[in-house]
Amino acid sequence: MPPAPLPPLGQRPEILRMEGVNKTFRGNVVALNGMTLGVGQGDFISLLGPSGCGKSTALRLIAGLMQPTTGRIRWTEAQSQGDLGVVFQEPTLMPWATVAQNVWLPFRLRGESYASVRDRVEEVLKLVGLEKFRAAYPRELSGGMKMRVSIARAMVTRPKLILMDEPFAALDEITRFKLNNDLLEMKAAIGCTVIFVTHSVFESVFLSDRIVVMAARPGRVSAELTVDAPYPRHEDFRTSAEYAARCRAASDALHTAMELAA
Description:
It is a single chain. This protein is α/β, with parallel strands linked by helices. The chain has a domain at 12-79 and 160-168 and 187-262: 3-Layer(aba) Sandwich (Rossmann fold), CATH 3.40.50.300. 37% of the residues lie in helices and 24% in strands. The protein has helices spanning 55-63, 99-109, 114-127, 143-155, 173-190, 201-207, 235-238, 241-261; strands at residues 14-25, 29-40, 44-48, 70-75, 84-87, 161-165, 193-198, 210-215, 220-226. The strands form 2 sheets. The protein has a 6-stranded mixed β-sheet with strand order 5-6-7-3-8-9, sandwiched between helices. A 3-stranded antiparallel β-sheet has the order 2-1-4, covered by helices on one side. Helix 2 packs across helix 3 (114-127) and helix 6 crosses helix 8 (241-261). The radius of gyration is 18 Å and the shape is globular. The relative contact order is 0.18.
């Protein structure tokens, strides 16, 4: 059954809130300062900013991989296993395991046999277009295909929230555009929320309904832009005057954020 249509931005129930979050590393390096961000159910949020502005740190804090120095991160509901998926910049696949076995990993860690979740694995492999490569090994795949496996592994449990840390940064432009398109289709299919780290203005506008622009030294939110163009988005949006105007607005906001960090 497809997910229910999303309410308009601003009317979606909040699933997560960062409240005045600060993160200081050893040597008094301030990675984040007073970051406050509400995440609505079904949002696609891009964290856009220069290197060193704390985008990846914010993602790791949300994932629970580190704790804030001060402030708090509050979930509106108790979280269970499988509610959170993470995709890193590198696919981080197990080289000795097949595509299907790599996608099965989250269930395996929970003690669930492959046979018991075979249908779920097959479903998500079909969603990412890799059903014919289920028995292939990572060494036999292109960079884009490896990233599809990583995304499939993050989505196979149908998580409420997926965190993505520059997953397409190392890919060529054609592959990146294709995976942007595919990512939106996959998100629509499972109805999840996405927080996506990127340096790319163009990628953030195409994918997101909210762009959070961050300034560095210390890392903080500089501006938030809304992209209320309807989904699904295809090449007609990417080549439209509206897209170009929104990219200019995001680029202006990014330049302002970089000036704040200077």
